[in-house]
Amino acid sequence: MLNLLRKDFIALKSSLWTILLYLAVFSFTFIPNVEMSIYFVGIYTAFGAIILTTMIDIKNHNHQFLITLPISRKQIVQAKYITAILYTILAVVASYGIHWLAKVAFPQFDKPDYSLWVILISVGIVLVLIAVYMPLFYTLSKKGAGIINAVFLVTLITLAQPAAKLINMMNEHVVSAQTWLLIPAGVLLLFIASYFLTIHLFTRKDL
Predict the structure, then answer these.
(1) What DSSP string runs through 82-125?
(2) Predicted confidence band at 180 (pLDDT cuts at 50, 70, 90)?
(3) Which site in 40, 47, 150, 191 is 20 to 30 Å from 123, CA atoms measured?
(4) Phi-psi region of 161 (alpha: psi -120 to 50; beta: other; left: phi over 0)
(5) Counting Cβ atoms within 10 Å, is residue 137 exposed (0-12), middle (13-18) or buried (19+)?
(6) Would you tell me how many other CB atoms lie within 10 Å of the CB of residue 159?
(7) Residue 199 contacts by C-beta under 8 Å, 6 or more apart in sequence?
(8) Rounded to 5, what percent of the chain is helix, strand, coil?
(9) Among 126, 124, 133, 119, which Cα is nearest to 185's?
(10) In 3-state terms, what secondary structure has residue 67?
(11) H or E segment to which residue 60 belongs
(12) CA of 179: how far to CAs of 5, 136, 173, 174, 182, in Å?
């Protein structure tokens, strides 16, 4: 398992500049102009990194090679989910740090005070995206990866504004305390269900 995680990080090492470029572009685009920029920067960067690592798998034919090794397909999927979680946390925390610096260095942007809830909400949103993306990726893989990524890109752009309004409602505590408990539970259940579904689909896939 550890070697599978190392494989993903080594594979992405040569493309690290791309992720940093994502972070820089999204920061320059959203921070001066969008009130909820801290969410967009973290979410877009995290999901961009996840898409990048899956595309590296396709480009290098990693799945065809990995299934010839003495490891199970369950371990391959498990490592990818763990990697996605780590990328998510790193991207969201980086967004938090950049926004903290922007608030100090550029008070004219009038950014609000941020709490740790920002990190938790951002991570939760990316987990939902991962839960939908991973089963599709492991089902369609090389044949449909380009289509999947294009659909997710369009969806993220289209739903950005409605998502911002929903997040704003949550931040203003419009939702009830019961909803605050149900949402994380729902996200966690969706993520776990996605994990087992992906294992099932990948195990049955003919490579």
Answers:
(1) HHHHHHHHHHHHHHHHHHHHHHHH-GGG-PPP--HHHHHHHHHH
(2) low
(3) 150
(4) alpha
(5) buried
(6) 11
(7) 73, 74, 77, 78
(8) 85, 0, 15
(9) 124
(10) coil
(11) none
(12) 35, 29, 10, 10, 5
Residue 138, number of CB atoms within 10 A of its CB: 23
Element (H, E) at 70: none
What is the reported pLDDT for 92? 93
Residue 65, Ramachandran bin (φ over 0: left; ψ between -120 and 50: alpha; else beta): alpha
- Helices 73-105 and 2-13: angle between axes, nearest 10 degrees: 50
Q: Express each pLDDT in 59-80 by its tens digit.
A: 767 677 676 777 788 888 888 9
Cα–Cα distance, 111 to 156 (Å, whole number) = 23
**What does the longest C-alpha to C-alpha distance in the chain come to?**
57
Three-state secondary structure call for residue 128? helix
CA atoms within 13 A on the CB side of 131: 15
* Cα–Cα distance measured from residue 36 to residue 125, given in angstroms and rounded to the nearest whole number: 14
Q: Is a pLDDT exceeding 70 seen at residue 45?
A: yes
**Tokens standing for 189?**
């259940």
SS3 17: helix
Taking residue 196's Cβ as centre, other Cβ atoms within 10 Å add up to 12
